[in-house]
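Weekly structure sync, notes
Attendees: PL (lead), two postdocs, one rotation student
Agenda item 3: pending single-chain targets
PL asked that the sequence for the first pending target be pasted directly into the notes so everyone works from the same version. It is reproduced below exactly as submitted, 287 residues in total.
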Amino acid sequence: MILVTGATGKCGSAAAKELLKKGEVIRVLVRDEAKAMDLLKAGGADIVVGDISQQADIDGALAGCEKALLLLPNSEQQLELEKMFIERAKAAGVKHIVKLSSMEAVADTQLPIPAIHWAAEEYLRASGLDWTMIKPSFFMQNLLGNAVTIKSMQKFFLPLGKGKTGMIDCRDIGAVICEALTGTGHESESYEITGPELLDFYQVADHFSEVLGHKIEYVDQPPEAFREQLSQFLASEWHLNAVCALFGEIAKGGLGHTTDTVRELLGRKPIPLQQFVRNHAAAFQPD
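Predicted structure, written out during the meeting:
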């Protein structure tokens, strides 16, 4: 059995659905059972309701599992929670952990979220367990957060300047996670994964325009305005500062490369941005 954490989020749900499509037996640890109902419909995941911060809940979810996906939301407590999960997995007899990390997680990073990911990677590498790190670029699904202004104003606002990313669809991330958990030869591997194109956000707007059939404009938002907007959704000052720092790094070119890893692992090209827009066109088109 495989335990999937983060199964109601963008990447965790994609991974869970890929595992179910392959006929794998999975268990998901969630706080809100209602949000996991689609996984039941997709193939019968074993749903355990619990809190990833509670050792007893982790122990119950890990019982009988041989592999696990470690995917926790970004927070100031994330490192300690991931360390606890790794230790409880080891105690439960789990053999292999696949961790969702970040392409920005490198040894010398000064960014808070990537620094946590790197420290957790190091802890997992030293644990004695088999491990695989999945390190994606910017998620295409993040653009769904701009759907309201794209629909109403034909514009989207981000503080990313001319920074480029090889943004990746979370469905590809889920497929890579599935391969890492079920395929062979993935132990002790760190996989940087990106989409097929290196794009700045002016080019992203051009792709939206072509697919939607009308002009979409990218507006380079001042960082202060972005911070003010984001503060309406993030209660934690630490999380607010950490996300703003990440976006600042992207604006400076911190994600400015692509890899061929998705094709190498899955035997197909990654999903391009235009396909993502077509798949979600209803969210972006005016009413």
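Discussion points:
- The chain is about 45% helix and 15% strand.
- The longest strand covers residues 130-136.
Action: rotation student to compare against the earlier draft before next sync.
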